[in-house]
Amino acid sequence: MLRLRQIAFAATDLAAAERALIHALGLRLCYRDPNVAVFGLRNALFPVGDQFLEIVSPVEPGTTAGRLLDKRGGDCGYMVLFQTAELAPVERRIAEAGIRVVFDAKGDGIRGLHLHPRDVPGAIVSIDAAAEPAAWPWAGPNWREHVETSTVSAIVALDVAVTDPRAACARWGHVLGVNPEGDHLVVDDGVVRFVDANAHPRGEGIVAITYATRDLELIGSSQELLGVSIRFVAAG
After folding, report:
1. pLDDT-derived band at 236, boundaries 50, 70, 90
2. In degrees to the nearest 10, what's the CA dihedral of 116, 120, 122, 124?
3. Which residues form the domain of 230?
4. Angle at 111 between CA 154 and CA 60, to 5 degrees
C-alpha cells in the first residue's frame, strides 16, 4: 500500500485561507490538531473523501512554515504525507540513501517520518503508517462525520516543481519504494508529477493539485488557491 493521503498548505492568515478553501472546494473542517503547536503553528484539516487537506499557519517567528512563506512570497504548498503499510522498509531505504529524518511524529495509532526537504526536494515529505489502515488519526477521531464530496471527492494528482525533475522523481521514488516512470510516480490513488521549476516564477515547491469532481461546470477548469493551481477532472 502506498497512498497520497494528505497535502498541507502554509498560509499567513489561517482564517482567510480556510474561507478560500471552503469556497473553492466545498469542504468541511474536521479537526484542529493542538499538537502542531510544538512547531509554532496552528492548523485546520479538511477531508476530501478519505484523503485530507491541511492548512498550517505560524503563530510565532522562526518556524519552517514561516520561512517558506517568506521564501515563496506568500501562501503556498508545504507538505505531502504518504501512507504505507509499515515503516521498517522505508527506514532502511532512507538510511541507505543518507536521507535525514527531521521529525519522528508519533500519535495514537500512527507514526510518520518527516524527511529533510534538502534531501527529498520540492516539499516536506512525510511517510506514515497507521495501526488501522483506514483510519487517519492526524485528522482527529470524527473526521468521517465531516466528509463532503458534492464538489470534490478525491485528490488524484500532485505537481511538484524542482530544478531537476527526473532526479527528484528518482529520489522520491527510492524513498517511497516506487519505480519512477520518467518524470512521475504512480501511487495507489494518484500520480505525483515533477515539473521544471524554471517555468514557475516562485521556484521549487508544490505548484498544482488535481481533484476529482462530478460537477460538470468544474470539469476541465482550473483556478488558483493558496498559491497553488487547482485543476478539476471527472470523477471515475
Report:
1. confident
2. -40
3. 2-234
4. 85
Average pLDDT over residues 85-103: 97
Q: State the cell numbers at 216.
A: 460538470
Strand-strand pairing, 190-196 and 184-187: antiparallel
Extract the C-alpha cell encoding 16.
482567510
pLDDT digits (tens, 9 = 90+) for 49-78: 999 999 999 999 999 999 999 999 999 999
Q: Are 20 and 11 in contact (CB under 8 A)?
A: no
Question: How many domains does one find in the chain?
Answer: 1
- CATH number, domain at 172? 3.10.180.10
Residue carrying C-alpha cell 514561516 = 66
Give CA–CA dist 213/74, Å, rounded: 27
HSE-CB for 84 with a 13 A CA cutoff: 17
| Gap between the Cα atoms of 150 and 158, Å rounded | 21
Q: Outline where the chain has alpha helix (H).
A: 14-25, 64-72, 88-97, 165-176
User: What is the reported pLDDT for 205?
Assistant: 98
Confidence (pLDDT) at 142: 97
